[in-house]
Amino acid sequence: MRIIEIYEYATKYAHPDVEKQLKKYEKRATNRMRMGYAPGFISYPFRVREGWSKKYKKSINCNNPKGFSQKAHCAGRKKK
Predict the structure, then answer these.
(1) How much is the pLDDT for 44?
(2) What is the spatial distance between Cα 77 and Cα 52, in angstroms, rounded to a whole number?
(3) How far apart are CA 76 and CA 22, in angstroms?
(4) Is the dihedral of CA 3, 18, 23, 41 positive or negative?
(5) Which pLDDT does position 20 carry in this prediction?
(6) Which among 45, 38, 8, 7 has a CA at the least distance from the CA of 25?
(7) Across the 80 residues of the chain, what is the mean pLDDT of every consecutive 10-residue run?
(8) What is the DSSP letter of 16?
């Protein structure tokens, strides 16, 4: 059933607040389609590529790296 058919059915046989609920669900569906989510889509339509700034890279102390990412960064620096 389409939203229009549901709306017609609901206005004839159900409570008047159904219109408010249907508008809420219709708005959600249109927002999902706008964002790229459709029945076949799983992931977000685009990826944001974030990298480390030069300032952050310089601030890493390779004598005492904190965390896995900083350790990997320092290991790559030592290879050069």
Answers:
(1) 52
(2) 14
(3) 55
(4) negative
(5) 78
(6) 7
(7) 69 69 77 60 55 87 92 86
(8) T
